[in-house]
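Final report, Chapter 2: Outcomes

The project's central promise was a pipeline that accepts a single protein chain and returns its three-dimensional structure in a standardized token representation, suitable for archiving and comparison. That pipeline is now operational. To close this chapter, we reproduce one record exactly as it appears in the project archive, with the input sequence first and the structure output second.
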Amino acid sequence: MFVDQVEIFVRGGRGGDGCVSFLREKYIPKGGPDGGDGGNGGSVILEAKEGVDSLAPYTMKHQWLGKRGVAGMGSQRHGACAEDTVLFVPPGTLVYDANGGFLMKDLAHPGDRVHVAKGGRGGKGNMRFKTSRNRAPRQCTPGEEGEERLLRLELKVIADVGLVGKPNAGKSTLLSRLSRARPEIANYPFTTKYPNLGRVMVDRDFSFIMADIPGLIEGAHQGVGLGHEFLRHIERAGILVHLVEPLPMDGTEPMENYRTIRQELIQYDALLAKRPEILVVSKAELPEAEDLVQKLEAETGQEVLAISAVTGANLNRLVQKIARLLRESSQEPEN
């Protein structure tokens, strides 16, 4: 099950209590206080980990508590500090404070982490309260409670290339041909219910991640259809590959479909209009494909590739074009 939004409650572990104790040894009748401090409670940490691709584990358990510190003991023995609780999430997870509404951390890369709930400090033992006037203190302090917070986790898929287009445009089939990903493929709309990721190998030293974004429809940016839930995943993709089907099953006009998707992307985020886009006509084995290529080139003024996941036509050209754009973008100086 793919889940890209979830709310969880986290609380750091309580610190261990301080100890009231007095030294009792033979020949030392007034040994004095020797109660140790309690250990600190464990914090709750979120960490992005490669290989984790969904927030589904957090749908069944919504409350995560840090471990409690060990209480202090006599003979000046301090309690052990508790280990931190580390929760692993997919790279690309945004961590929000649900009550405050602010972004705590963008865990964009594997290894990124954030302390979301700090553990409480351990209490002080009675040896801490000994003074020249109070040689036998009988007070200690309890361990402090850990921080608590309601979090909203939102996943934005990390991918170099995002496949966009109307339902049944051939995105899932293309992903399955270029990578080892095996998304569900069927001859009906909205087969893809969540983004699928696949690694495309260009050569021994270079590869890229491609994401199949669920089919968008008109009004997606306003919450219509499945696309509204997944438009956010396109924001991470450096390059968009826009697939246009030459003979849509629903009888719609291909050129109008292209314009609709472009408009949905722009209305969701105007910066997407400036994102590098590769125009692709899928299902090139159909007779209508060549005419659509010419119309798209005339309207957009850019090269249009006609590919076929069935025959393999121009798949290598598409991969090489994507690789060239990715290499060029990686060499551009940052502003």
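Archive annotation: The longest helix spans residues 315-331.
This record, like all others produced under the grant, will remain available to the consortium after the project formally closes.
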